[in-house]
Amino acid sequence: VVAMIAEEEDALYLKALINNNLKEYNSISLKPYTLSASIGIAKWDPKYSSIKQLIEIADQELYKEKQATR
Predict the structure, then answer these.
(1) Using an 8 Å Cβ cutoff, are 24 and 30 in contact?
(2) In angstroms, how far is CA 15 from the centroid of its own chain?
(3) Are residues 18 and 37 in contact, defined by beta-carbon separation less than 8 angstroms?
(4) Which pLDDT band holds residue 36 (cuts at 50, 70, 90)?
(5) pTM above the 0.85 mark?
(6) How would you label 20-33 residue by residue, b for 16+ Cβ within 10 Å and e otherwise?
(7) Cα-flanking dihedrals φ and ψ of residue 32, to 5°?
């Protein structure tokens, strides 16, 4: 998901909303597996040379979260 969000607080809210919806789905689903998501948040900085660099930063944050939740 790439979203135009000005405040970090709003990005964290969106992240929590996605995770809460996944938890709710898992609690009512009769599936033998659970869905989860690792979400990396990065804010645009003029020092980035491209959108690709922004996505790379978000990807690094995603993997940090993934390692922290294992």
Answers:
(1) no
(2) 5
(3) yes
(4) very high
(5) no
(6) eeeeeeeeeeeeee
(7) -80, 10
pLDDT digits (tens, 9 = 90+) for 2-17: 788 888 899 999 999 9
Locate 45 and state its tokens.
Answer: 């900085």
List Cβ neighbours of 44 (8 Å cut-off, separation of 6 or more): 54
Q: At which residue do the structure tokens 């040379």 appear?
A: 49
Identify the residue whose tokens are 């970090």. 8
Which string of DSSP letters, residue by residue, matches the chain? -----S-HHHHHHHHHHHHHHHHHHHHH---SS------------TT-SSHHHHHHHHHHHHHHHHHHT-
**What proportion of the chain, given as a percentage, has pLDDT over 90?**
61
Instruction: Specify whether the CB–CB gap between 61 and 41 falls below 8 A.
Output: yes
